[in-house]
């Protein structure tokens, strides 16, 4: 079981689909990530976009810590169903679940302004595919939006498109978290 680390829902558990290739972000990494985001004021009142949402742990953590809303995008049907069950179990009303590929969602979401985008793609996702998705973000980012990419620590740095400026990264064992600003 995965649990919400902090905020209003801190300590509550969520379920992750087994056998679907979903790899929930560890408690340690989520705590570090959300401490960093909280210290920069990137969560409170934010419109959050959780791409490759898996169990929904990242978006739910953001809502628990004061995000105004979260949109979960997940193409795997079982995983999207688990997100829905987690949202209902936690009583989160400011959530929207979109069963779609990330690229298809971003192609039709232009004009929406997200303040915080969390990308936790499957580690096998190729660098060209990740670069393509990052290039599609420009039409959905608010001014000064924060973009977070979680990858394997063996993966190269993402290729940031024009409009996204890398701010740094942190390595936690097998996981690296990359930060960029729009």
List the helices and strands and how they pair.
Blueprint: E1 2-3, E2 13-14, H1 27-39, E3 47-51, H2 57-64, E4 69-73, H3 77-90, E5 95-98, H4 102-108, E6 114-119, H5 127-136, E7 141-152, E8 165-172, E9 175-181
Parallel strand pairs: 3-4, 3-6, 4-5, 6-7
Antiparallel strand pairs: 1-2, 7-9, 8-9
Protein name: Ribosomal RNA small subunit methyltransferase D
EC number: 2.1.1.-
Pfam family, one: Cons_hypoth95
What report would you give on this structure?
The structure is a single chain. With 182 residues, the chain is α/β, with parallel strands linked by helices. The chain has a single domain, classed as Vaccinia Virus protein VP39 (Rossmann fold). Helices cover 29% and strands 28% of the residues. The protein has helices spanning 27-39, 57-64, 77-90, 102-108, 127-136; strands at residues 2-3, 13-14, 47-51, 69-73, 95-98, 114-119, 141-152, 165-172, 175-181. 43% of the residues are buried. The mean pLDDT is 94. Keywords: Methyltransferase, Transferase.
CATH top-level class: Alpha Beta
Overall mean confidence score, pLDDT? 94
The residue fraction in helices comes out at 25-40%
Beta-strand residue fraction: 25-35%
The number of helical elements comes to 5
Number of domains: 1
Tell me the major beta sheet: 7 strands, mixed
Low-pLDDT ranges: none
Features:
alpha/beta; Rossmann fold; two-stranded antiparallel ribbon; 29% helix
Short structural summary:
The protein is an alpha/beta fold and 182 residues long. It is 29% helix and 28% strand.
């Amino acid at each position: 079981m995965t649990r919400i680390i902090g905020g209003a829902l801190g300590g509550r558990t969520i379920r992750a689909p087994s056998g679907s290739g979903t790899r929930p972000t560890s408690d340690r990494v989520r705590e570090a990530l959300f401490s960093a985001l909280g210290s920069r004021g990137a969560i409170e009142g934010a419109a959050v976009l959780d791409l490759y949402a898996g169990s929904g742990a990242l978006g739910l953590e953001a809502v628990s810590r004061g995000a105004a809303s979260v949109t979960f995008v997940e193409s795997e049907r079982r995983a999207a169903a688990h997100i829905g069950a987690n949202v209902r179990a936690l009583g989160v009303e400011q959530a929207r679940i979109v069963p779609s590929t990330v690229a298809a969602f971003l192609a039709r979401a232009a004009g929406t302004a997200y303040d915080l985008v969390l990308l936790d793609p499957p580690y096998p996702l190729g660098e060209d595919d990740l670069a393509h998705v990052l290039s599609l973000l420009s039409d959905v980012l608010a001014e000064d939006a924060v973009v977070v990419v979680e990858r394997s620590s063996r993966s190269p740095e993402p290729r940031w498109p024009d409009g996204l400026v890398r701010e740094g990264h942190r390595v936690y064992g097998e996981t690296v978290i990359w930060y960029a600003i729009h």
